[in-house]
Design goal:
The chain is built from 18 helices and 10 strands. With about 375 residues, it is α+β, with helices and mostly antiparallel strands. It has 3 domains: about 160 residues, 2-Layer Sandwich (Beta Polymerase, domain 2); about 90 residues, Hydrophobic Seed Protein (Orthogonal Bundle), CATH 1.10.110; about 100 residues, no CATH class.
Length: about 375
């Protein structure tokens, strides 16, 4: 169910739609997740505007307050901390647009376009659906949870609803993975999230793209960013396992094949005992990146990114090295999964549930922080 703040935001957007004669849509993941039955309450809201999103956002911020940020090169804007809607941290606006990839693997150049072209540029059909904001608000007030009613108001040029019913992840065009190889990571994230599979043609295109070496065109930072997103999935171990089976992980210079079993043990433990959430991303990411980064400078950058203090760094390094070197001592971890819980505890103890902590103490034979 939409929250009070979200409903009032829709009304503010509706007012600006009428004032500027522009149409606002909810697009992509929000629509997909509504069909999957996920609760949208108090999640940040993204709008696609059939028109000038920067002007539209400027009018909305006059109504709702907050800090307006404009990104004209991308035809986007966002309102941070809208004062009238304290439960929302930000509201994003983007003009409907199309993308031009000047070189494979590089970020695209964008230009204004129709809503159909905007949907056509997206990664997968299940993310290429849109609903007019006005109609979505009315659906939320009168028919929330009725997916058939939602289908009636959904703009779906590419069969996303049908693919979602059949649990299929399908690209929109043959060059999709070559244009943006990070879609390879996202494909498997969505396969696991919806409990489905790659559409047959998409599977062939993905394998061909990997064999072409397309991942070599993607910067290390973008690859790491995709891995961080995977760590926010409730079943992150399954995503990594699929990527490994398709040879994606071995194509990453940051991945060491001989550590695969350790990494999987870490992820299975986190998935089982430490819920994935935005709050827990800090230590989930730091932990996996430790395993992926032998280089001390790169590890230092990871620690800085996640604000991990010197004492925590020392604990993490000492206990992880004991594991990685196969050393044994009283109180040391006996397995990678034990280390996963311990390192998570060191980095962010507030996010370890009481039962998980008790299990860790039982395994280690001693109390933890």
């Amino acid at each position: 169910m939409f929250s009070v703040d979200q409903k009032n935001l829709f009304k503010a957007v509706e007012e600006i739609e009428n004032k500027l004669s522009m149409k606002a849509f909810m697009v992509g993941g929000t629509v997909r997740d509504l069909f999957l039955g996920y609760d949208p309450a108090d999640k940040d809201v993204d709008f696609v505007i059939a028109g000038d999103a920067l002007r539209f956002a400027g009018e909305v911020v006059e109504l709702v307050g907050g800090d307006l940020k404009r990104f004209p090169e991308f035809l986007t804007a966002k309102i941070l901390s809208p004062q009238k809607f304290p439960s929302l941290s930000e509201v994003d606006f983007a003009s409907s647009r199309q993308e031009v990839y000047e070189r494979p693997g590089k970020l695209p150049r964008v230009q204004s376009a129709s809503i159909e072209k905007d949907l056509e540029r997206r990664d997968f059909t299940i993310n290429a659906m849109a609903v007019p904001a006005i109609e979505l608000r009315l659906w939320g007030e009168t028919s929330y949870g009725n997916v058939e009613k939602l289908s009636e108001i959904t703009v779906d040029f590419f069969g996303g609803r049908n693919d979602l019913k059949n649990r299929l992840v399908r690209v929109l065009h043959a060059e999709s993975f070559l244009d943006d190889p990070t879609r390879i990571f996202r494909a498997f994230r969505y396969v696991v999230r919806i409990g489905g599979s790659l559409e047959d043609g998409t599977k062939i295109l993905l394998k061909s793209a990997i064999e072409s070496g397309c991942l070599e065109t993607v910067s290390r930072s973008r690859k790491l960013n995709e891995l961080k997103k995977i760590l926010l999935e409730a079943r992150s171990a399954e995503v990594i396992a699929l990527l490994h089976a398709e040879g994606v992980m071995s194509n990453l210079s940051l991945y060491e094949e001989e550590r695969h079993s350790e990494i999987m043990a870490v992820l299975h433990t986190l998935d089982t005992l430490v819920p994935a959430s935005a709050a827990s991303q800090k230590y989930r990411s730091a932990l996996l990146l430790f395993y992926l980064n032998k280089d001390a400078k790169e590890r230092a950058a990871t620690y800085a990114e996640y604000a991990i203090g010197r004492k925590q760094q020392a604990e993490l390094e000492r206990e992880a090295e004991l594991l990685l070197n196969g050393e044994k001592r009283e109180g040391a971890m006996a397995s990678a999964s034990d280390a996963a819980l311990y390192l998570a505890q060191v980095i962010s103890p507030a996010h370890i549930a009481a039962d998980s902590r008790a299990e860790l103490e039982r395994r280690m034979g001693r109390s933890v922080i």
